[in-house]
Amino acid sequence: MTLLLASVMGPDEAAVVLAHGADIIDLKDASNGALGALAPDVVRATVAAIQGRRPVSAVAGDLPMDPDVIVAAVETMARTKVQYVKVGLFPGPGRQDCVRALASLARATKIIGVMFADRGADNALVKVMADCGFAGAMLDTSDKRAGGLLDCMDVACLREFVGTCRDYGLMTGLAGSLEAPDVPRLLLLAPDYLGFRGALCAGRDRSARLDTASIGIIRELIPFDPHGAAYQDSAVAKVDYRLLAARGYSVDPTGDAAATDRIFVRDFVVPARIGAYARERERPQNVRFNVDVKVRRAGHSVEDMRDVFSYDVITDGIRIIVAQEHIAFPETLAERVADLVLRHPRVVNVTARVEKLDVGPGGVGVEIVRERPADVAEVRQLYPAATRQPNAAE
Fold first, then answer.
1. pLDDT in tens, 139-159
2. Cα separation of 37 and 72, whole Å?
3. At 23, is the secondary structure helix, strand, or coil?
4. Torsion over CA of 211, 216, 218 and 224, rounded to 10 degrees?
5. Measured between alpha carbons, how far is 223 from 30 in angstroms, rounded to an integer?
6. Which of 110, 161, 205, 346 is the most exposed place for a label (fewest CB within 10 A)?
7. Integer Cα distance of 150 and 271 in angstroms
8. pTM greater than the 0.90 cutoff
């Protein structure tokens, strides 16, 4: 289960994201760099206001890679009684020394090491953090004006980071100017949490006021258990289940349950390690993918990312699959693509065509059609009373 981390600047904002279903409340000064620290008194007051209803993290600050400075900042923030302290690990010769200097503190404080996708993230540092007792590692971006996480690092590299963290038993998070369209793409990687600030604010300005409608969109894009005890005090407990309707768990009883749309990816070419011959293991080959997906139509007009099946899920999924290992047969590759797409509850069937382009004057390959089993594909009205009603203007 991927959690929603919401960054706030004090008790008032914490109350807003708490009421709208944030899983982790993160404290930072959003007007002061990527990891600007708040005053300890503000952090302490926020922890007191939350009263243990959610885990709380706080950043130690945008600091130089000086072990003494880093240790002092983490000690200060740990005294506020937050559950996690996030420390920025910027590139430089002192970075590993800073991690090792925190080993003694990590025995009593849950420390999250933050690397930056736009400033020398290094998977080798994950092992050092694990050896020093860190609780987790995450990727963020340093320059919030230069694009988001997926502009700085592709999904295959992000998958490798998440996998490395998992191998070493570290909690893992992804952040960095994330937007609503990023959510379904990053959920493919199954990080422990996704972190947001700008996407939750008016006008996507990370220093502006929080916007409850924007929070609601992000919250509904990340799966959650609205009946869990942790959410009985929040607006999530009163969610209108529109996302569930969009995903096929519920339909408008007055609509056409059989109505579908077709999402497609055409002529998507990527290098892949594929082929049964020994010589085909020596270098990647160009492979062309054509994928058609039939998805159940939402019972209302498309308004935002909650209402669509993103084609990025297909292209990112292909990138992730081909990056994993050598695959002997196109049939195997096609099956893996189809299986990934069919995991989305709205998908009815998928046609996956895989062609090897480097074996001769034309393309050769395979096309498969796979359908969701009928007993799974049946749409049940789990929450019919909550289905969104059209406005008078619709």
1. 999 887 778 999 999 999 999
2. 13
3. coil
4. 150
5. 26
6. 205
7. 20
8. no
Record the tokens describing residue 166, joined without a space.
Answer: 């998992």
Measured between alpha carbons, how far is 306 from 220 in angstroms, rounded to an integer? 7
H or E element, residue 328? none
Helix H, strand E, coil C: the string for 175-237 is CCCCCCCHHHHHHCCCCCEEEECHHHEHHHCCCCCECHHHHHHHHHHCCCCCCCHHHCCCHHH
Give the phi and the psi of residue 56 in degrees, each rounded to 5.
-125, 135
Closest CA to 101 of 56, 143, 40, 60: 60
**CB burial of residue 391 (10 Å; 0-12, 13-18, 19+):** exposed
Q: What angle do CA 184, 369, 371 make, to 5 degrees?
A: 65
Token pair listed for 58? 């706080």
Residue 101: which of 128, 137, 62 has the closest Cα?
128
Q: What is the DSSP annotation of 331-378?
A: HHHHHHHHHHHHTSTTEEEEEEEEEE-SSSSS-EEEEEEEE--HHHH-
SS3 102: coil
pLDDT digits over 204-263, tens only? 998 899 999 999 999 999 987 554 434 444 444 444 434 433 333 333 434 455 789 999
Q: What tokens does 152 get?
A: 């700085």
- Amino acid letter, residue 257: A
- Residues with Cβ within 8 Å of residue 382, at least 6 apart in sequence: 241, 244, 249, 250
Which residues are CB-contacts of 40 (< 8 A; sequence separation ≥ 6)? 76, 77, 79, 80
Q: Which amino acid is at 325?
A: E
Structure tokens that stand for 90 in this block: 């910027």
Catalytically active residues are 28, 86
Q: Is the pLDDT confidence value at 299 over 80?
A: no
CA 285 – CA 282 distance, rounded (Å): 10
Strand order in the sheet with 260-272: 260-272, 285-296, 347-356, 364-371
Cα angle: 261, vertex 265, 270; to 5 degrees: 160
Per the listing, tokens 């999530």 go with: 236
CB-based contact 84:110 (threshold 8 Å):
yes
DSSP at 145: T
**Structure tokens given for 94:** 């002192």
Contact 383, 241 (CB under 8 A): yes
